[in-house]
Amino acid sequence: MDLAYLWFFIVGVLFVGYFVLDGFDFGVGMSLPFLGKDEVSRRQVINTIGPIWDLNETWVIVAGACLFAAFPEWYATLFSGFYLPLLLILLALIARGVSFEYRHQRDDLRWKRRFDWMITIGSAVPALLWGVAVANIVQGVPIDADKNFTGSLFTLLNPYGLWVGVTTLLLFFLHGVYFVGLKTDGQVHHDAQALGKKLAIPTVIFAAGTVVWTIFLAAGRGAPLLWAVIACGSIAAVALLLSVWFNIADRDGKAFAAGAVTIVFAVLTLWLALFPYVMPSTTDDAFSLTISNASSTPMTLQIMSWAALIFLPLVLAYQAWTYWIFRKRITRTTIEEAELTAAH
């Protein structure tokens, strides 16, 4: 296989990993106003991702770095054209990260509530805008002969982009709620299961619409991997329905696993619908960025391939070890005992 095509799929896998892992972080943050009914329950919710949120976030850095190195033309057009939404995502991630570190620095309710809202907003904004951005990459945007994006922010706020954005927001929200249910006990655990049931119907509706819309978009473009798009979309739909069923049946681990499978195949549906383009042009197909004309030199891709072969297994092993170390539930009793210890 041509290394450029191999790296198209590797970059896709990295973004899949990011959306699965940071996706439930976003969902946990969005669930905070609904599940954090007192300070102890809010700490329960936040502590589910406390040791791992920054590790999950590094996946987007790796994905962005690989995108820059493997497809510099794609990176340049994407980051110049999508500058404002990507900047908003960055600011939201910064606000969320700061909030995790600073909310406990003062024993003042108003201080903590402000940072709680920053966590919620800093989770919802990326969850929405990542979907809008990926949808526009798949659908295509106006690009001129010099590979420059010629649209504006309002160009990106089109029906398909907004629909997929709401879909990713709901999927990440549901995924995070499943994670809270898996990692907590008591009232927070039961409230998370109840919230998951309420989110099920709108999430299924928007996800189904995204899959059907994307399949028709790929078919209209004559996508060579249309069969794979349909297969991945179907798997995502079945996995989502299974996650809803497992949540109703009080099977937290299986609900979370099915939610993760849903996001994996939902992202693959979008990614495979893009192939063999990396950024289609709606101005003229001749101006489109493809895997071939946007990639780096073969030597660069060879070096990157050897680096990935050596370091990616180490990263995966470290991530697996981290999750194993912090695998226990966050119980209300543990937090209450910690508060009593701190008070004395």
TrEMBL record:
GO terms of molecular function: electron transfer activity; metal ion binding; oxidoreductase activity, acting on diphenols and related substances as donors, oxygen as acceptor
Keyword line: Cell membrane, Electron transport, Heme, Iron, Membrane, Metal-binding, Oxidoreductase, Transmembrane, Transmembrane helix, Transport
Topology term for the membrane: Multi-pass membrane protein
Record field: transmembrane: 6-32, 77-95, 115-140, 160-179, 199-219, 225-248, 255-279, 303-326
Protein family (similarity comment): Belongs to the cytochrome ubiquinol oxidase subunit 2 family.
NCBIfam families tied to this protein: cydB
Protein name per Swiss-Prot or TrEMBL: Cytochrome bd-I ubiquinol oxidase subunit 2
This protein's encoding gene: cydB
